[in-house]
Amino acid sequence: MLVAFSITPSVADADGGVADAVAEAVRVVRESGLACETNAMFTNVEGEWDEVMAVLKRAVDVVAASSPRVSLVLKADIRPGHTGQITAKVERLEDRLGDR
Asked: Is the pTM of the predicted complex or chain greater than 0.85?
């Protein structure tokens, strides 16, 4: 399972930023040992259903510790029998772009 997600606290800092809370959530994901990557808008994580969902719950919980309300946006690619898709999907795209 490959999941792209974004967690946002309802409470921002004095400048309207949420980087501190988001950093705590990303730390949870990175410390999980699952394959992951973070970009400007989402964090991608790959693993089995139960392990990915457990990591997402911990990430939400850490943000909820500093905010009374948390928003979670999640998109999942569920493809049994396929692993390594966090990089393989991009490699397939780049291969096709290189042909032109």
From this structure: yes
Confidence label for 100 from pLDDT (cuts 50, 70 and 90): low
CB atoms within 10 A of CB 18: 19
CATH of domain 2-98: 3.30.70.930
Domain-by-domain residue ranges, the chain?
2-98
Among 8-17, 18-27, 38-47, 82-91, name the one with the lowest average pLDDT: 8-17
Q: Can you give the chain as a three-state secondary structure string? A: CEEEEEEEECCCCCCCCCHHHHHHHHHHHHHCCCEEEECCCCEEEECCHHHHHHHHHHHHHHHHCCCCCEEEEEEEECCCCCCCHHHHHHHHHHHHHHCC
